[in-house]
Amino acid sequence: MQKSQRYLALDVLRGMTIAFMILVNTPGSWQYVYAPLLHAEWHGCTPTDLVFPFFLFVVGVSMFFSFAKYENSLNKATLRRVGERTFMIFIIGLFINSFPQWSQDFSQLRIMGVLQRIALAYGIAAIIVLAFSRRNILIIGTSLLFIYWAILYFLGGDDPYSLTDNVVRAFDSAVLGDRHLYMGFREGGEAIPFDPEGLLSTIPSVVSVLTGYFAAIMIKETQREKVPLKLILYGAVFTFAGWLWGLVLPINKPLWTSSYVLYTSGQAAILFGILIYIIDIKGYKKWSSFFVVFGLNPLFIYALSGIWAKALWMLIRIKDAEGNVMSGYGWLYQNVFVPLAGNLNGSLLFAITHIIFFWLIGYILYKKKIFIKV
Asked: Could you tell me the CA-to-CA distances from 343 to 34, 78, 322, 347, 356 in Å, in that order?
């Protein structure tokens, strides 16, 4: 990649997604969270529902430029690199799910997760873009979205896009087993085994990566000053197409519906275009350095934040003034943040403090020029 084609906005967008992931994953209390910082209950799309597909979009953009050194072709070197990276990211995700390993009931270990979804979407998309021509990549991506829609519609139950009747849950249950699925969804007060980062719904998430890859192609082939406008138009078309498709196939993050892919990829492209215009074209860069710190060690910081949160929940025990034993997580929230800002704002401040904490770790790595590649 030529130096003139390197966009700081890419690191900023990547960093924004990581910072927002930490924000929405670590509230002081899940009982006190502002609505935009929660996922939609089922159908729909909140700002929080944009974060994960935005990261996959960035993966696709980065993939195009990183594979340029291999001439974007499938060979022994690229296949080995893709395989190693897919395996490492998946294993790190599994490690976080099982942490702390010495107190884990492995018979109920959740197998899939955010990092596992990133690993598989990256690995499959990488093989596609390296093995096929641009035209065929477009055909494959389009076909995957329509095939997935057909799978949902024809193989689901009476209400194929519902929590209980969707084929995604049935497939993942058959392959992984109910005991290894996420148990956070409820219907009628009963916990329903369903994994929002499951196996079958990985199919359309691959296309989320491919949309970023095509955005990168467009960037490379467009005059620098015209890139923001093209990205915004590209994004507007995708957003509208996703919204229109959503009239018959609901926009739904847990199912990662095809309409959701187009809608969120469009939003990602629009934001990317705006950032390129502000940062790389107009040169307003000073404010962006905060997010660059996250963007240069994204997966490491995200993984560390997950391990830290689980350690606070599961390993640290503190007695309160009344002698009740609390988790370190709960004690911090109740004794530090609630007195400062109340329940709702204290919960938000707890999450913001964690963003700052992990930014400081990232800043130390940045100053020491340590970039942990996963």
From this structure: 11, 50, 20, 6, 20
Q: Is the pTM of this model over 0.85?
A: yes
Answer yes or no: is 152 within a domain.
no
> Residue 3 is part of which domain span?
1-25+285-374
Residues 6+ apart with CB under 8 A from 11: 291, 292, 295, 296
Per-residue pLDDT of the chain (374 residues; tens, 9 = 90+): 344 467 999 999 999 999 999 999 999 999 999 999 999 999 999 999 999 999 999 999 999 998 887 777 788 889 999 999 999 999 999 999 999 988 889 999 999 999 999 999 999 999 999 999 999 999 999 999 999 999 999 999 999 999 999 999 999 999 999 999 999 999 888 999 999 999 999 999 999 999 999 999 999 999 999 999 999 999 999 999 999 999 999 999 999 999 999 999 999 999 999 999 999 999 999 999 999 999 999 999 999 999 999 999 999 999 877 778 899 999 999 999 999 999 999 999 999 999 999 999 999 999 999 999 88
Phi and psi (nearest 5°) for 365? Answer: -60, -40
100: in domain: no
Q: What is the number of structural domains in the chain?
A: 1
Position 305 in a domain: yes
In a domain, 84, yes or no: no
